[in-house]
Every structure is written in C-alpha cells, then in structure tokens.
Amino acid sequence: MSYVFKFVINVFTVVIFSFLILFSVRRIIFAIVAIISRLNKTSQCPSLYQPTVTILVPCHNEESVIANCLKSLTQLTYPKQNIEIVVCDDGSTDNTLNIARTFEKKFDFIYTLSISLSIGKAAIMNLALQRFKKGEIIYTFDADSTPRPNCLTKAVRHFTSSLVGAVSGNQPVRNRYDNFISYYAFLDRLFSYWTAYANDKLFLGAGYLASNCGIRRNLLEKIGLFDESCLIEDASLELRIYESGSRIKYDHEAISEQEVPVTLKGYFYQRLGWVKGMNELGSKHYKEIFLNKKLNFKRKARTLLLLFFYWDRIFCALAALMTVAYLLFFSLSPLFYWVWIMFFGSLIFQTIAYLIAEKSDIRAYLRLPILAILFPFEIFVVVKAVAEDFLGKKRIRYKTLRKHEKINLRATKEH
Questions:
Q1: Least confident of 132-146, 155-169, 217-231, 296-310
Q2: Is 341 exposed, middle or buried (0-12, 13-18, 19+ CB in 10 A)?
Q3: How many angstroms from the chain centroid is the CA of residue 411?
Q4: How far, in Å, CA of 269 to CA of 331, rounded?
Q5: For residue 397, is pLDDT > 70?
Q6: What is the dotted CATH code of the domain comprising 1-415?
Q7: Quick one: angle between helices 66-74 and 96-106, nearest 10?
Q8: Residue 413 pLDDT more than 70?
C-alpha cells in the first residue's frame, strides 16, 4: 500500500476522530453545568411584567390533541385581557377546526384562522400575524402542548430586559413511558432543553425550540417573520435572531408538556424532517455566521455547532467505518479504543446527568439500555437524510404522527 494513500487515510481518520472528541468534550461540559447550576436554584427575574401577547397555535389534522391544548391555554393565570389565542388551522381535513370553533364560541379571547388548502406552518402563522395585531409578544405553542398555568407568566418576565429578543421554555414529555420509542424520543427532548439550559448558563445563547417560545413582534417583523421556505422555521428564526444581535433567554420554570411519537415510523419521519431542515440551514447560513461581526467567537462556534447538530452521528458512522478499515488493513492504535470510550462514555454521562438534574424516577434509569438499541437507528436516519440531500431529493414536510394516529399524513407543501 502506497505511502501517500496511507498518509491520506491517517489524516482523514485524525479529522474524524477529532470531531468525535470535540462533541464528547461538549457533552461533558454541558452535563456538568446542568447538574451544578440546577441544584436548588430558581430564577430571580421579576414576574410582574405582563405585556400583551398573541399566542399562535399552528395545527394540521390535530383532532386528537387540540382540545387538551386549548383547555390548558384557557387555564393560564396570565390576564386574559392581555392575550389573544389564535388557532392557525392549516387546511385540516379532520375535526380540528370544529373543536377549535367550539372553544372560540365559549371564550372571547380565542380565535380561529382557517384555510382550505395547506400552505405550511410558517405561512399560516405569518398570515395570522397580518390579521391579529394585539400582542407585542408573539408566543407559539404546538397543538400537542399543555402549558402549566404559570407558563406564560414565567416566560415573558425576561422581556423586561431590552437585550432579550426571544424566550424559550421547558418542554417535558408527558407520554415518555408509553413504550420504548416514546422513551427514546423523551431522551432526545431531554437533551434539547437541558442543552439550552447549559448554553444559557454559559452565556452561549439558548435555542429557540419551536413550541413554548416567544419573540418580540417588532424583532420578528425586522428579521423577516417566520421562514416559509424552511422545513424547521424555529431553527431558522434562532439564527436570524442572533444575526440581528439580539439574545434568546431560556426559562426552565416556564413549563409546557408535549407529546412525542410512539411508533418507529412516527419517530423516523419526524427526525428525518429535522435533520433535513438543519442541513438546509447549514448550507444557507454558514458563511453569514463566519462573517457576522455582531457574533463573538463563542457565539459563532455555538451557532455552527447548532447548524451541524446531528453531524456527530455522521462522524460516528464514518469513525466506525475507519475502525473497521484499520482492523482489516492496518494495525489498530490504542487511540481508537480511548476515543470510542470517550464518545459513548460522554453520551451516557450526559444522559444520566440530565436525568439527575430532571429529578427523574427509577423507571427512567432502568430504561437506559434502550440507548444501545435506538442510537444506531438514529444514526441511520441522519445518514439517510444527508444522503438524500446530497443526491438532491426534494424535501418534504411530514406531519408529526400522534399516538392515536395509524398513518403518517404528509403535508402538501414541498421544498
């Protein structure tokens, strides 16, 4: 085997394993921050600030969950004269609109906006913003959300600071123990909001997590509203918020529970859409982030890691291939073993740390072996998404498959 070929393979291997180490170190730091910062601490931000709020609830064929969501919203302790709740019905063909109109007739602060054909989540929310102008804060909840009574009060208090342009709240999973799929999806959400918590504590900037999130209306209008061309409008919004020089605050006490898929098919399509959306954003925005003078080095590094959030799975797959190649054609260095121990060890450590910070019960720990079963499947989904993007396959928005649904309903809008 030629010296040049061996040199190229070695360089390639070093690069791949360096990324695995980088992701591992990041996991360890976030895990430590979550445990240390969470212990018996609550936010000290004042909670008397009560600006006007327009709450958007985008939905498409959500008859199994929309009633519980609206019921929870009516029980918010926030002054009702300061809110308007808009159900944004994106061409539902089931009973979603009828359920929403029942609430509209009963409560004078609930409104429905419906169109006959689906135009996409971002588009229907932008349409709502044109017609409903009461709130200086625009807050969104997914149709499966069930916010706790003080959720909105806890979240909007951070807007007392002029530096804060948006807020994300905590989204625990209410059906985490339905089966092993829902438990793995719960772990994924656990990682999302505790990583947001750690980012916030490290002053790296929290994420904008799609549901249970709020943004100043004037900032949203300034940066171009919700991105109708992107599969994941929340991550697109997050990037543009930071590019504008504004901040996102995370509040762990602003709690809204949510539902996750309970079937492998439901999990597959949800994750496939997320990965494709992040790939799309990465290809669009990485140059802007590098050149943006409003972002310091920490923010740029953090934002780039966001864009390539799922790529640790890609590097894991590549590293596995390189390990097999070295076993077959070269001698395997002890470094391989240590990197793999560090990568999977940090994953397990972060998971346990977040469960401890979450104050989870014993059932959560007993189900941890599920990680070994579904993490390879998650790698497969990520690799498939990247491969389809590389081959130029059209991006399609898939509706989240709820626990009571038997088929996956695909939205009509394609990208």
A1: 296-310
A2: exposed
A3: 20
A4: 40
A5: no
A6: 3.90.550.10
A7: 20
A8: no
